[in-house]
Amino acid sequence: MLHVKSITYERVTQQSFEKAQKFIWEQCQLHYGDKIMPERYEALQKRIAKEMSRPECCAIFIALNEKDEVVGVIALSDYDDRIEAIKGRYESKEAAEMSRCYVHEAYRRCGIGVRLFELATSFAKEKGYSMLYLHTHYFLPGGFMFWSAMGFSITLDEGGVWQTVHMERLVEQSALCYA
């Protein structure tokens, strides 16, 4: 049985960025594979680097096992109104976007995702965001159910091949449960 006490959490710094980024790419490959074109991975890489250069409004948190290996990650950034389907929904500087929440398969259902979410939400409170936004896909293992348990509700279900669902919750809102 996994001992969650051996997991440590930290905000990603320039020193730990490469390790966090490697984990993110591994998880992206695992979950999306060839569904995403190489250009999209390049754009995502640039976006993550941009977020790391803006610590006043963006943060990445990681969970590390006893071997100092990344076993979980979550990112939070100011929402930039880039998604056409929800364009104009959030006022500037109001919403923070949760993204890239991954927990290694061997470490799931141990509270790691919840703790990463709590760290990101605390950062959002500290920075004055009032709304948390995210989008997920029904085909991602556990994603939709996790976000629902964290108190997010659907604002738009796009369906389609990508099974994209947009969700939000207030920063000050409590999670529904921690199952």
UniProtKB/TrEMBL annotation:
GO MF annotations in UniProt: N-acetyltransferase activity
UniProt cross-references to PANTHER family, sorted A to Z: GNAT FAMILY N-ACETYLTRANSFERASE, LD18367P
CDD domains membership: NAT_SF (cd04301)
Lineage of producing organism: Bacteria, Pseudomonadati, Campylobacterota, Epsilonproteobacteria, Campylobacterales
This protein's name: Putative acetyltransferase
Organism: Sulfurospirillum barnesii (strain ATCC 700032 / DSM 10660 / SES-3)
The entry's keywords: Transferase
Record flagged with keyword Iron-sulfur: no
Recorded superkingdom: Bacteria
Chain ranges of the N-acetyltransferase domain: 7-172
Gene3D superfamilies: 3.40.630.30
One Pfam family per UniProt: Acetyltransf_1
